[in-house]
Amino acid sequence: MEEESGTDIEALIQRLRLYQPAPSPYAGGNPSAAVPPSPAVAAAGGELFRPRRAAVLVCLFRGGDGELRVLLTKRSSALSTHSGEVALPGGKAEEGDANDAATALREAKEEIGLDSALVTVVASLEHFLSKHLLVVVPVVGILSDVQAFKPVLNVDEVDSIFDVPLEMFLKDEKRRSEEREWMGQEFTVHYFNYEKGSAKYVIWGLTAGILIHTASVVYQRPPDFPEQRVQFKLPKYSKECSSMP
Fold first, then answer.
1. How far apart are the first and last CA of the chain?
2. Burial degree of 23 (CB within 10 A; 0-12, 13-18, 19+)
3. Do the bridges between strand 119-124 and strand 90-92 make them parallel or antiparallel, or are there none, so unpaired?
4. Kind of pairing, strands 68-75 and 158-165?
5. CB-side neighbour CA atoms (13 Å) of 122
6. pLDDT 10s digits, 159-205
7. Which of 32, 64, 62 is nearest to 48 (CA)?
8. Average pLDDT, the chain
9. Element (H, E) at 143
10. How many angstroms separate the Cα of 182 from the Cα of each of 15, 35, 197, 243?
C-alpha cells in the first residue's frame, strides 16, 4: 500500500470504514451463544459461562513527519493487575455502554482525558481473548487534530502516555518473540522495544498482538515475521470462570 498523505486522512477514514472483520470465534457475552452445563455439572455447582466483553481504543494520528502513530499508556505501578505494563486505553464494558466504541471512548476519557468529540471511530477489528478470558474488541479511531488533545491522566490507572509509529509493528526490528502454551494451544508472544528520550518501553502480549493486526489492516500487508495468531477455545462452563472479576 502507498500510505495516504497527511492531506489525505479522509481517504484513510473512508477505507477503514469499509473494513469487515471476520466473525468472532468467541461468544462475547452473548447468552444465546453460551452452552448450559450438563445435569451432572449443574448438580456440582457448575454454571453457564458467559465471557465478559472489553474494548480498547487504537487511536491513530499523523505525526510531524506524516507517519501514522498510535497512543499508548503505561499502566500505574500501583495497579493489582498488569502494573507498569504498556497498554491501549480501554477496559471492561459497562451496562450503560451502547456498543464497543462507547466502551473504548469512555475508558479513554477516564484514563487519559481524551474527549470523544476529537475521535472519529472508523472500524472494529477481529476479537482477541485475554488471559483473564475477556473478549477484547479493538476499536480504531482517528485523532485528526492531535494539538487539540490535552492529556489529563488518571494517576490511579496511568503513569504516563506516549505514542509510537504504527508501522513498527510490521517490521522485524527491535522485536523478539517466545513460544508459549495456553489452554492446550501453542501461540507466539511478541515483544517490541521502543525508546523515547530516556524512557524505555516494552510493548508485548495482547497489546502487541492487537497492534500487529491493526497495522496489517491499515497498511494492507502482513508483518515481516510470522504472526501466528491463535483462536483459543473458550470453556463452555466453569464455576471458577463464572465468578471471575
1. 42
2. exposed
3. unpaired
4. antiparallel
5. 26
6. 999 999 999 999 999 999 999 988 788 899 999 999 998 999 999 99
7. 32
8. 84
9. strand 134-143
10. 35, 22, 36, 20
Distance CA 108, CA 101 (A): 11
Phi, psi of 206 (to 5 degrees): -60, -40
Residue type for 78, please?
A
Share of the chain above pLDDT 70, in %: 80
CA distance 60 to 12: 11
Give the residues across from 119 on adjacent strands.
143
The C-alpha cell at 155 is: 494517576
Spatial separation of the C-alpha atoms in residues 46 and 195, rounded to whole Å: 47
Q: Which residues pair with 123 in a beta bridge?
A: 140
Show the domains of the chain with their CATH numbers: 50-225 (3.90.79.10)
Of 17, 16, 138, 145, the residue nearest 89 (C-alpha): 138
Contacts of 245 (CB under 8 A, 6+ apart): none
Strands 52-62 and 134-143 turn out to be parallel
